[in-house]
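quick one before i forget lol
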Amino acid sequence: PTTCPPHSYTTQLISLDPLLIYITNFTTPAERASLIATGLPLLEPSPIIGAAHLAQARTSWSAPLPDTDATLACVLARAAAFLGPALLLPPDDGRRVVEMGPAQMVRYSAGQRFDVHTDWFARPRLLDEDGAAGRRRLYNRVATIFAVLEADGVEGGETWFPHVAVGGEGALWREREGGTAFKAVPGNALFWLNLLGDGTGDVRTAHAGLPVEGGFKTALNIWPRVFFGPDA
């Protein structure tokens, strides 16, 4: 089994409703270097699941990271500890189960962007492996952890939430068109809940990867999955 060294980070509560938390020092320099080295050879043009006609809205490169990677295992264990029992343990009635989903590395270079979008699906989806096994459970992305791995000479490239207003500007974010744009800072991460209490998507979590004007921005997407249905 992988032995993960102790690690500490700090958090700032950005918004209660929708829930948005800023995490400082979520990953170490060594972890970031290792994840980038693993992911770079795997990068391909980023897809948009279930929306091929919107491909022009997302011009970055991305890659799913192998779940056998020891560094990734430590980062995902840290993410699971952050989420805690409220998300990762099923409720007593057993109607939903939450699991850590696969992690995705994404990279933006000059001119690349991801227009305003949500991470949740309008309709819960069936995993290919569940469909092949005849399992009827469906899933959605209950939350997102977006961790910046690299911002090499980056200009622009903030993560913008048009419906979340913090007010004022600082070293980590700025006001943009009534919302908040978070700067790309290696090691830091954003966490937000994608779904409302009834399991439907929260439109206020819509966000964009603003165009990178220079340099590179590399980040890690972690999407815990909530499963619904009779076979969950």
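fyi The chain has one domain: 10-228.
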